[in-house]
Write a structure and sequence with these properties.
Blueprint: E1 3-5, H1 21-24, E2 26-30, E3 33-34, E4 59-62, E5 90-98, E6 101-113, E7 117-118, E8 121-122, E9 126-138, E10 141-149, E11 152-157, E12 163-164, E13 167-172, E14 179-180, E15 184-187, E16 201-204, E17 209-210, E18 216-222, E19 227-230, E20 296-297
Parallel strand pairs: 1-13, 5-18, 11-20
Antiparallel strand pairs: 1-17, 2-3, 2-4, 5-6, 6-9, 7-8, 9-10, 10-11, 12-13, 13-14, 15-16, 18-19
């Protein structure tokens, strides 16, 4: 249902990316060492075979030196219809809670996240980026929408949102791809508090549209069994059960130009993200259960 607005004034060089292509351009590593017994080729059908008993996550690590900015990191620019032609860049997952209550997750994938520049330092870059919206329905009527942003996000009533043909508009931040309900600047210096200006900013504007539903995989999710089911016989499923990271492990100091702030508060390059299975697909509130108060605002704000 959501439709995303890409930046116009400062075009984001890192566009939506093909989920499967990430496996072509990366290799599984554990503690910076290639997993030698992994399937070859690694595909969306067999990615879940990488599960292991080691508490350390497996990282899908770039085969290329990312400081050279290889072309595949830049993804695919949506065409005039809003489609990422040749790239399946979204997974739509339906969790039917019963009694007319349904959550639909729109998971957006990008091959790279550019974190931004703060006090002349580039911080928070990472290979792989998953963002999402979740739309909550009651008896077929949308009631609220969650917007993921960095380590948390915001929720709004469906009625409050800007829409096009009844579909909520999502403003994707330049580089970081955090999702916002309005264009403009969004300060996220203070965790869980967004302001129109400040030290650490995301930028969004009313740019060209990306319609994620035009190039997407569609699934249902059974919370009782924690199983995914595709809505057709050709859609890959195994990758959804992969619990590792969709990018590189944070580099040691000095590698690939890595540097960190004192006490490792933030680094130029950080860990890649976990995938959809780690996004609380069976949440009770519209917001994830992370200890923060879940506020579903009926007023749009940064």
């Amino acid at each position: 249902m959501p439709v995303c607005s890409r930046n116009r004034e400062a075009p984001d060089p890192y566009r939506p990316s093909d989920i499967g292509a990430q496996l072509t351009n990366t290799q599984p590593e554990l503690n910076y060492t290639v997993v030698t017994n992994s399937p070859s080729p690694l595909t969306l059908d067999n990615l879940d075979s990488l599960e292991n008993d080691d508490p350390t996550w497996i990282y899908l690590t770039s085969k290329d030196n990312i400081t050279t900015n290889p072309t595949w990191l830049k993804g695919v620019t949506p065409d005039e219809s809003g489609q990422t032609t040749g790239a399946v860049s979204c997974a739509i997952i339906v969790n039917d809670h019963g009694n007319g209550n349904v959550d639909v997750f729109y998971m957006y994938f990008y091959a790279y996240n550019w974190g931004g520049v703060y006090f002349s330092l580039e911080l928070g870059d990472h290979v792989g980026d998953w963002e999402h919206n979740m739309v909550r329905f009651a008896n077929g009527t949308p009631t609220a929408v969650w917007y993921s942003q960095h380590s948390n996000g915001e929720a709004f009533t469906y009625k409050a949102l800007n829409k096009t043909s009844l579909r909520p508009i999502v403003f994707s931040a330049n580089g970081s791809h955090a999702n916002y309900a309005i264009p403009g600047t969004h300060d996220h210096t203070i965790p869980d508090l967004n302001l129109p200006d400040g030290l650490i900013l995301d930028y969004t504007d009313e740019g060209p549209l990306w319609d994620p539903t035009l190039s997407a995989y569609y699934y249902s999710y059974d919370a009782a069994t924690q199983e995914f089911t595709a809505y057709d016989n050709t859609t890959p499923i195994g990758w959804l059960n992969f619990t590792g990271m969709w990018g590189d492990k944070q580099y040691p100091i000095g590698e690939n130009g890595q540097y960190c702030l004192p006490l490792n508060i933030e680094c130029k390059y950080v860990d890649g993200p976990t995938g959809p299975i780690d996004k609380q697909l069976n949440r009770t509130e519209v917001c994830p259960d992370n200890g923060d108060l879940c506020i579903v605002s009926d007023v749009l704000r940064p």
